[in-house]
């Protein structure tokens, strides 16, 4: 039974877009120059700069008399209210699950805000488990956090064989790709148009976005095609995900083959997402505010 692990921010969820939307609100709410949006975005560093640094710099720049606690609460409420999981990402997760994969989330960050994102965006019922660094007391790239994720997804890890059937998808090399390599996992790096900059290690594959990454992973093993998966939806479990889990086995292919398969899979995922977007969607219950 294969396992597919995902990073959360800027992998499953477009975190940077949500930050930019919050920054626009922050400037407007405090009657600050709208032209400073790029300054705040640059200072944010894709979320890897500590919030105390970003908000402390803003507090000094604008002479704000608000406490850091108030500014941090404004930030957490704001960014999570703007974050959404794209339809194409939801479709990719469903196709991967229907093709026999167990799915998990491995996220560095604070427990409360990260858990709120998972719940607010509807990701919770789409995955089999998750781990967040604060509650696990360990950070990517530590192999322990990946082992915790595997256990929570129902994988026995004592004999170490789970690593041969596991992929990690993420956008941040020093955490996601380095962690996968240190743990013995295959990886897909979401490059988002960036060049690979690390010298000591490399991802197994790279992709421009999450649907393409899922397509590459599905193309790198013997598994039902996307057309097969979509055709079996609505049938009894013996011809759906359960049967797929029983009849598939890991079979690595070349990166070129994975890339070729990714195009067809991504196109199918896009079609599914567009179809779902045209249907009325039930509201997703929100998590606790921060």
Largest sheet: 6 strands, parallel
Average pLDDT confidence is 82
Secondary-structure class: alpha/beta
Query: What is the helical fraction, as a range of percent?
Result: 40-55%
What's the number of extended β-strand segments?
6
SSE series: EHHHHHEHEHHEHEEHHHH
Q: What fraction strand?
A: 5-15%
Q: What is the number of helical segments per DSSP (H or I, 4+ residues)? A: 13
End-to-end CA span: 37 Å
Q: In which order are the strands of the major sheet placed?
A: 3-2-1-4-5-6
C-alpha Rg, in Å? 20 Å
Which stretches are low in confidence, meaning pLDDT under 50 for 5 or more residues running?
A: 222-262, 279-290
Shape: elongated
Key phrases:
6 strands; 13 helices; disordered C terminus; 290 residues; alpha/beta
What can you see in these coordinates?
It is a single chain. Strands 3-2-1-4-5-6 form a 6-stranded parallel sheet, sandwiched between helices. Helix 5 runs parallel beside helix 10 and helix 8 crosses helix 9. The longest helix is centred in the last third of the chain and has 23 residues, at 255-277. The chain starts with a strand and ends in a 13-residue tail after the last helix. It is α/β, with parallel strands linked by helices and 290 residues long. Helix 9 links the parallel strand 4 and strand 5 (186-190). It contains 13 helices and 6 strands.
């Amino acid at each position: 039974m294969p396992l597919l692990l995902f990073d959360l921010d800027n992998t499953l969820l477009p975190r940077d877009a949500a930050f930019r939307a919050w920054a626009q609100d922050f400037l407007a709410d405090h009657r600050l120059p709208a032209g400073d949006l790029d300054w705040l975005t640059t200072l944010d560093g894709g979320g890897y700069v500590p919030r105390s640094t970003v908000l402390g710099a803003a507090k000094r720049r604008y002479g704000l008399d608000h406490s850091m606690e108030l500014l941090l609460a404004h930030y957490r409420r704001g960014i999570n209210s703007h974050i959404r999981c794209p339809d194409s990402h939801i479709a990719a997760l469903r196709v991967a699950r229907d093709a026999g994969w167990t799915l998990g989330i491995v996220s560095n960050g604070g427990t409360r805000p990260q858990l709120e994102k998972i719940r607010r965006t509807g990701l919770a019922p789409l995955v089999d488990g998750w781990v967040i660094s604060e509650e696990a007391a360990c950070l990517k790239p530590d192999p322990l956090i990946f082992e915790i994720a595997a256990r929570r997804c129902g994988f026995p890890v004592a004999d170490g064989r789970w690593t041969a059937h596991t992929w990690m998808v993420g956008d941040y090399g020093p955490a996601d790709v380095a962690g996968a390599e240190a743990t013995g996992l295959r990886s897909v790096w979401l490059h988002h148009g960036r060049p690979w900059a690390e010298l000591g290690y490399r991802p197994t594959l790279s992709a421009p976005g999450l649907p393409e990454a899922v397509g590459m992973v599905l193309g790198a093993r013997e598994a039902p095609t996307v057309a097969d998966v979509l055709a079996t939806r609505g049938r009894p479990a013996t011809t759906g995900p359960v049967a797929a889990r029983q009849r598939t086995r890991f079979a690595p292919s070349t990166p070129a083959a994975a890339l070729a398969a990714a195009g067809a899979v991504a196109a199918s995922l896009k079609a599914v997402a567009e179809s779902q977007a045209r249907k009325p969607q039930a509201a997703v219950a929100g998590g606790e505010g921060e």
